[in-house]
Specification:
Helix 1 runs antiparallel to helix 2, helix 2 packs antiparallel against helix 3 and helix 3 runs antiparallel to helix 4. This protein has one domain. The termini are far apart. The chain has 167 residues and is an all-alpha fold. It is elongated, with a radius of gyration of 25 Å.
């Protein structure tokens, strides 16, 4: 069995998880949210980098590696990662950013913050989640054994006796 560190699929998967974890706030919220109330010139990534590392990258990588080590189907690996990713990303990143970048400039109740943030995040989170499951599945899909019907015919022909003639 190959070492987990040396496996190319695992390295690619962890890189994908890293990119999605760190860039998620930028990808999901950049076009929807305005400047920060706390820091006018701060980028979303500056505000969320530590949160992304602590709540997304480390747990998602751990979940993926444990499932990979257990030999779980690659589709279920991706699905398990996304089941953790969506709610944690929403609660730890989307809601605080929405509160800082939109709700602080207006009068939103707590319920309106949640409702509006969900409404705004659904399309981009659905796309990101689908892509994450699909790409993790494709990266980790075990190559199937190549089946060549011509090889099977050749082996059957070789087994039949060459002295047999048809009349």
């Amino acid at each position: 069995m190959k070492s987990l560190i040396n496996n190319k699929a695992i390295r690619r998967s962890v890189l994908l998880i890293s990119l999605v974890s760190i860039l998620q706030p930028y990808i999901v919220l950049k076009t929807q949210f305005g400047p920060s109330n706390e820091c006018w010139k701060c980028l979303i990534i500056e505000q969320t980098f530590t949160t992304s590392l602590m709540y997304l990258l480390l747990p998602l990588s751990t979940i993926y590696l444990v499932l990979k080590r257990l030999g779980i189907n690659s589709f279920f690996q991706g699905l398990s990662v996304v089941i953790y990713y969506v709610p944690v990303s929403f609660i730890k990143i989307t809601i605080p950013l929405f509160d800082d970048r939109i709700a602080s400039w207006s009068t939103f109740s707590d319920q309106e913050i949640w409702d509006t943030a969900i409404y705004m995040a659904i399309p981009s989170m659905a796309i990101l989640s689908s892509l994450l499951v699909l790409l993790l599945f494709l990266i980790n899909k075990e190559p199937s054994l190549k089946y060549h019907p011509s090889k099977e015919i050749e082996t059957k022909d070789e087994k039949s006796s060459p002295n047999t003639t048809l009349t």
